[in-house]
Design brief:
Blueprint (H helix, E strand, L loop, with lengths): L11 H4 L7 H28 L6 H23 L5 H10 L7 H22 L3 H4 L10 H23 L7 H22 L5 H11 L5 H23 L4 H8 L5
Helix pairs in contact: 2-3, 2-5, 3-8, 4-5, 4-7, 4-10, 5-9, 7-8, 7-10, 9-10
Length: about 250
């Protein structure tokens, strides 16, 4: 992209990813982005209960998808807009992101998610329970693991695929990822809540103290992300330099 069209391209924290002096900006972006994502993902079902059914299921699954699109546009060039521990681990496993940076990213994502749920808890009673993702009646832990694994596999496949050309910080990637989140939610939300994100799952559980089936979500999401990395190797071979730029927030020239 031409520098006049994309002037942020030359900001030091954008193109100097190895410079730890700017790491706080990236961690702040991950925390703030995950905060906004969880506000939408948890806030929609909470608002539905608080308003006695004024936010239907289709609107609940659209909300986080649209929010992700906005976050990628706003913060993607700073941190890569992972917003999800499973995505950070997948980028690292793929070789697009250094493992040593993963703990900081995951901690920032969890912190942002927890702050979002705490805020909603102060606004709406019982948010820790209402905003959590739990299996529907008749959906076992193993089925939850499988469903979350499948939809997370799809999410990370889309992310890695659009990142292959450094497009996950642009129009194509933002729209593809957001639309996928909506599509997965339309069929999986009635069964598991369609979390696809350990931070989104753990934060309400931590606030409510109810850890039912959390293991199925975490295991399914991480397994699905790992499977997506394997799929990326089959489809595209070794990781590309452009994908590494995308994972770290720097756009392709």
């Amino acid at each position: 992209m031409h520098p006049l069209i994309n002037p942020d391209r030359h900001l030091p924290w954008v193109h100097e990813f190895d410079n730890l002096h700017y790491e706080w900006r990236r961690l702040f972006a991950e925390a703030a982005g995950t905060f906004l994502l969880v506000i939408a993902a948890v806030g929609a079902p909470v608002a539905n209960v608080a308003s006695h059914g004024q936010v239907p299921l289709d609107a609940q699954v659209v909300a986080p998808g649209l929010m992700v699109i906005g976050i990628i546009y706003a913060m993607g060039m700073v941190s890569g807009a992972h917003l999800n521990p499973a995505v950070s681990c997948a980028f690292a496993l793929r070789g697009n992101f250094p493992w040593k940076r993963v703990p900081g990213y995951v901690a920032a994502q969890l912190a942002g998610a927890i702050v979002a749920v705490e805020l909603l808890k102060g606004l709406v009673v019982r948010v820790g329970i209402l905003g959590a993702t739990y299996p529907a009646p008749g959906v076992s832990g193993l089925r939850t693991l499988a469903i979350e694994g499948v939809i997370t596999f799809g999410l990370v496949t889309v992310i890695l695929g659009t990142a292959a050309g450094a497009r996950n910080v642009g129009t194509n990637g933002a729209l593809a990822i957001g639309f996928y989140i909506v599509l997965a939610g339309l069929w999986a939300a009635p069964l598991t809540g369609a979390s696809m994100n350990p931070a989104r799952t753990i934060a309400p559980d931590l606030i409510s103290g109810n850890w039912d089936a959390w293991w199925a979500y975490a295991a399914g999401q991480l397994a699905g992300a790992a499977a997506a990395v394997g799929c990326a190797w089959v489809l595209r071979g070794p990781p590309s330099f452009a994908a590494s730029l995308a994972a770290q927030g720097e756009p392709e020239e």
